[in-house]
């Protein structure tokens, strides 16, 4: 294999990319771009359908989403057990693409009176789709890159998600009033197929980069190896591990507080915009604002923040900001404060908290990277939605308003901050133990390593 050409120029100055990492970074970037563009084409449609179905019914839709997550986790775990990564990832994405085609056909052919129930089913489905496809992406990335590479590169990879989200939300914001909903759905199908193509490109490159020089054969990087284990391992291994349980708590507290803000935003949209097209355009515009802000942070700050502050302090940024934001909302429960807080908080999650949270999985066994991670990213996340949705409904049911909801969120965010610091320190201890033991955790794949003179590449 020829000597890799070091990445130079503006990219090398923007992020700390090492020789041999550039092509893998590009495939990863295009891969997540395609997924998020597909999702953000569909997200404003989901939000509008959720509002059209009645805000009072949103808690029931969140309940249905949790049930759907539980049902889908078992067949996915079976695929992970029986098939190598190169097979179960495309199968999963194409399953969801077939679902989108079915929704598009239904909207095209179904009578108008089917609209409300079609919208409710689509709301539940997209809430499942989003978490599954993104979780699978990050599990694949964690399987390819090492812990040290994750700290340097995951923020920039996440920028691909943001550019995809900007492209998707801008497309829907521009076309929603003139293009039928089913036409937008067909765009999402094409983008998912592009994601499969990029995933295969990354997989082939991963295999080549792990070849033993001069042997003509690659070392095992997980591409062609089945993971095995139990179908229920995602649940059992999560419950048996304090580390994974605390990752679950991190996501649970984030989800509960996010749901509080989402319901407030949905109420604002219904009161402020008279028709479906305007509501869809509003949701898309909020998404666009979030993603433009996120992109700037990811390109210029995320990697530097992680390297300077470490995982523990970086994880604590979002809960610390949430304490301040909910406190402000308790004092000034206005539309402007809610929207500004939502935009800043979501940007902080996408730009900082999400890529750093993925670093937590670089120090766990490979089976946990797919099974436990999938369970945490989907079922635990949606369980948080349930707690948040029904808590929101209960607080409103006893006649309390936004200030009271924010008051409940402040102590939750404080507990979240403590949990974040504990997780960051636990990750560092695991990383040190892993390096002292001479490699990755048992059962993990060999991570992508930058080329060096000693490697002969």
Quickly describe the structure.
The chain has helices at residues 10-14, 22-52, 58-82, 85-109, 115-144, 147-175, 181-209, 233-240, 242-272, 276-300, 302-315, 317-331, 335-359, 366-397, 402-436. With 457 residues, it is an all-alpha fold.
Average residue pLDDT = 78
Strand content: under 5%
What's the SSE pattern? HHHHHHHHHHHHHHH
Number of strands: 0
Largest sheet: none
Number of helices: 15
Assign the CATH topology: Growth Hormone, Chain: A
Distance between the termini: 6 Å
CA radius of gyration: 22 Å
Assign the structural class, choosing from mainly alpha, mainly beta, alpha/beta, alpha+beta, or little secondary structure. mainly alpha
Low-confidence segments, ≥5 residues, pLDDT <50? 1-8, 209-221, 442-447, 449-457
Shape summary: globular
The second-level CATH architecture is: Up-down Bundle
**What is the helix content?**
over 70%
CATH superfamily: MFS general substrate transporter like domains
What number of domains? 1
Name of the CATH class: Mainly Alpha
Secondary structure layout:
Layout: H1 10-14, H2 22-52, H3 58-82, H4 85-109, H5 115-144, H6 147-175, H7 181-209, H8 233-240, H9 242-272, H10 276-300, H11 302-315, H12 317-331, H13 335-359, H14 366-397, H15 402-436
